[in-house]
Amino acid sequence: MWLDPQRGWEPVRVTFSRDGEIQQEMRASLRNYDGVWYPESVALFIREHKAGREPMETIRIHYALFNQPDQPTRLTPKDIGIEAGANVHFWDENHKPIEMMTWDGEKPVPVEEFERRLSAGEVRIGPGLLRIQAKHAAEQAAAYARQAQTALQQAESAEAGADASVTRDSFSKAPPDRIDSLFEQYTRWFMARYRLDDEQTQKAWVICRESEARARGLVARHRREIVELDTRLKEASSSRAGDADETRARLNARRAELLEPIVRLFEQEFKPRLERLLTRAQRERARTSSSPAP
């Protein structure tokens, strides 16, 4: 966070980084409203939008009032635009992510609880977040559609069945920061295997990115323990102790237990959503080809 000492120490730049790379950035220009420094414009940059070189969205404030007698004395998250469905990240003292929850309109709740209540109609994602998600998904779909031709050309030259390597075991072996990438790996195989058209490709990428985001949230909840398990597994692999095999089995079992919600997401939601994009002709063509089914 960058503060401007000449303008009330208000923030003019805020960044969010992961693994040393900036994922999101906010830049603000300030204006004095009746003695209070407040943003006149706020530009939001994200890595996925034009490589972060141009703002995905710019908010402009035309006027602002402060310390008026009819204004509330207490602001809530809703007053500052925090809507139901927003992610709430928790960090440790070393700025390492330890957990992610979802704001339900009143308080942070576990991601799985929010999704369950969302499916049951008990909560709704805020309209502002829905607009941002729709805009982001449309931009991503347009960009990913350009990749469709390459994938289809690859399918024409060689059968893609040999690349269907994402299985339950893949999640047990992947490091925490690579688990979400397995969804993209499978999506690319799926597009080539079934030779999706442009519209199907766009929808497949939207499904992929939505699933990746949910997977990252699930990983974030247990990241610290998964990293510790991986460290202990590495130590156990090089150990000559008599109980090394038993230790590895116990650690692997615990790791699999932590990753089970992601495996369920992959097997029971993500893959069926992709399958529903297919036509009968595509299924039949894949069934009669020489490539093995996934």
What does this entry look like structurally?
- The protein has 294 residues and is an alpha+beta fold.
- It folds into three domains: 1-71; 73-125, no CATH class; 141-288, no CATH class.
- The protein is built from seven helices and eight strands, in the order E-E-E-E-E-E-E-E-H-H-H-H-H-H-H.
- A hairpin with a 5-residue loop joins strand 1 and strand 2 (10-18).
- Helix 2 (127-157) crosses helix 4, helix 4 (181-194) packs across helix 5 (198-237) and helix 5 (198-237) runs antiparallel to helix 6 (244-275).
- Residues 156-163 have low confidence and may be disordered.
Describe the largest sheet: 5 strands, antiparallel
Q: Helical element count? A: 7
> Strand percentage, roughly?
15-25%
Q: What number is the mean pLDDT?
A: 83
Q: Give Rg in angstroms.
A: 23 Å
**Gross morphology:** globular
Per DSSP E runs of 2 or more residues, the count of β-strands stands at: 8
Instruction: List the secondary-structure elements in sequence, H or E.
Output: EEEEEEEEHHHHHHH
How many discrete domains? Answer: 3
The structure class reads alpha+beta
> Order of strands side by side in the largest beta sheet?
1-2-3-4-5
Spans where pLDDT lies below 50 across 5 or more residues: 156-163
